[in-house]
What we know:
Layout: E1 2-3, H1 35-40, H2 52-58, E2 62-73, H3 84-87, E3 99-111, E4 117-120, E5 131-139, E6 145-147, E7 149-154, E8 159-163, E9 186-191, E10 199-210, E11 221-224, E12 236-238, E13 244-251, E14 262-266, H4 267-278, E15 286-287, E16 290-294, H5 297-303, E17 311-316, H6 321-324, E18 332-336, E19 339-340, H7 347-352, E20 359-366, E21 369-376, E22 378-379, H8 383-389, H9 407-413, E23 415-419, H10 422-428, E24 437-442, H11 447-450, E25 458-462, E26 465-466, H12 470-482, E27 487-494, E28 497-505
Antiparallel strand pairs: 1-16, 2-3, 2-5, 3-4, 4-8, 5-6, 7-8, 9-10, 9-12, 10-11, 11-14, 12-13, 13-14, 15-22, 16-17, 17-18, 18-19, 18-20, 20-21, 23-24, 24-25, 25-26, 25-27, 27-28
Binding site for substrate: 123, 158, 231-233
Main location: periplasm
Keywords: Hydrolase, Periplasm, Protease, Repeat, Serine protease, Signal, Stress response
Amino acid sequence: MKYAYGLTGTLLAGGAALSLATGFPAGAQVAQNDDSTMARVVPRAGAPESFADLTEQLQPAVVNISTRQRVEVSNNPFAGTPLADLFGRRGGGQPQQPTTREAQSLGSGFIISADGFVVTNNHVVSPTGRGTVEEITVTMPDGKEYEAELVGNDAASDLAVLKVQRSEPFPFVRFGDSEQARTGDWVIAIGNPFGLGGTVTSGIVSSVLRNTGQGGAYDRYIQTDASINRGNSGGPLFDMQGNVIGINNAIFSPSGGSVGIGFAIPAEIAAPIVRTLMQGEEIQRGYLGVRIEPVTGDLADSLGLPRNRGEFVQSVEEGAPADEAGIQAGDVVTRVNGQEVTPDQTLSYIVANIAPGTSIPVELLRNGDRRRVTLTVGRRPSDDQLRQNQMFEGDDEGADPDVQSSDIILERLGLQVVELSPQINSQLGISDDTTGVAVVSVDPNSDAARKGLQRRDVILQVNYRNLQGVEGLEAAIAEADQENREAVLLRVQRRGIPPRSLAVRLR
């Protein structure tokens, strides 16, 4: 199953795995070049004798991107093992505090204006783990380096815009119309695979609007067999007219290297987002508030419906636009705002590209009956809000790496917790006025685990005081340290069971 308007993917940065109008004229260009120069370097249709002239024209605008980061690392050599508590303390006392180290990442990008705007993938310029990016450097093909400013980034589409400065104009390229790309068209990719510098590969468009099954609004890619590897992330995929029709983003590879299946974000998706980021504006996307599943396989057979048509509603968020319009769990959404819902044009994609506040018709099937409702599209919440809304929907007992939890509580109690909110309270089946924190995960090697704490438990009090949030639990730990107490008393509520008190040892 998937949630509408999320995003997952396999990434290509070195060391790692929307309205539809493009708004950019087609054609590759170097600042101050004229159209006659451009015409001479465009190969004839069909298989070109060589890509050399086209490459010579385009390569000056393709850059290498590197970051310098400060990453937090643990000093405990037994971290993540059952021996972490036994040997991970300094002199048998307090836990060893983490330190930081310097790290780097490598990727690709391309200049889209003479004044130095650069497009790349968001994950190329984002911090690794618990790190912060201290510097972004853009290196030109001639080896000149420029410090870059992050103008804007968008995690949902995995796009980012940088700005570099110099007195003379930069060579640049332009977005083309990826909607005109056809399976079998020639393409070339230019980028920085494995940190090797400007590298050119050629191939064809293997598929258009490829859905990888990862889910989310932007699971739509141009697939190509042009060799794409780690470090190609953020680099351009060009058509034979020198237009950027895709931004290289992901690969399918059992080995980690190119096996001829690469994916690029289509220009029809990227260009309007890039334009918005260049203007310093926030990306706003439509939102319905439904949890959905494709109508395939047994689900289609059980409903007696054609496969790959429409999407099945698993649940509806209370108070969300879909709920207010009367959409229910079990409905099959078949058409939104006049557009048919298919694997190539998912519900998530259609709604994400509708401006919040727009009133749209939605056609659906309920118990075999066709219905039509009208709703007002909401604004997609932030990723943090979405994570909270969906925090306890599943039964996953493992730690959630996306939860912004307290390092102190995780280190001292072995608990990953999140503050209560109306959305989380609803998921846990507790009253709206309940205060405290909810347990997201429990370290199996902690005393909390030995005392029976579990995911979905709610900590109501600590040392007989009502708990207002994460800061209150941190303060109680600090107070216990000051008074040389080795445990805290937690009042814990579990659904269907009266609250109980547990004395949990600090680590």
